[in-house]
Amino acid sequence: MEDPVIAEAYEAGARTGATPMDTTAGAALRFLAAATRARSVVEVGTGCGASGLWLLRGMPPEGILTTVDANGAHQEFARGLFSRAGAGAGRARLIRGSAHEVLPRLTDGGYDLVLIDADALSYPFYLDEARRLLRPNGLVVFHNAMAGSPEPDGPLRAPDPGETAVREVIRMVREDESLIALLLPVGSGLLAAIRS
Ligand SMILES: C[S@@+](CC[C@H](N)C(=O)[O-])C[C@H]1O[C@@H](n2cnc3c(N)ncnc32)[C@H](O)[C@@H]1O
Questions:
Q1: Nearest to 18 by CA among 68, 71, 54
Q2: Which keywords appear in this protein's UniProt record, sorted alphabetically (predicted)?
């Protein structure tokens, strides 16, 4: 990988089990952050910092990433990486805690882009929070939108609650006429939706 700091994030993710977003999804995310000129970004699921670095690479230099994770060890690793990548405290605000407690405290309509890369079971809750947090024309992106077994649920395979929640969020996005959505088949899938 060309970028040595991003490469470090992938090594640490593999070591710690933080499961970094794969590089094709990361490159698409950087593109989306650049295309929307996202200055104010919220991420749920800092992990070891791979997706955060992709976002920071696409955001304008004055952009600020607010990134939330319940796992302090993952976040401390990411903090060091962001700093080595030239995105220290001024550009990356790391908040340790459950997204269920942190997101409701963030400002309504204050963000250009919300990235969700955390517990799939909470995806419907995260969509509700993203609708509140985004400015008009803001973008929400869900990672792992194509994750899951190709086997249909049925007598031989019990429904997986995480996959059910991902399908539910896809249904919610499709049915919301205030959102313009696109499923990007990169990596394990990015579901992107613009709030009109
Ligand atoms: C797949 S990893 C994130 C990988 C990261 N986005 C990257 O590309 O490097 C998921 C992270 O979400 C965090 N997480 C899961 N559920 C959470 C929750 N409810 N609130 C905050 N963090 C959560 C985990 O601690 C873990 O670090």
A1: 71
A2: Methyltransferase, S-adenosyl-L-methionine, Transferase
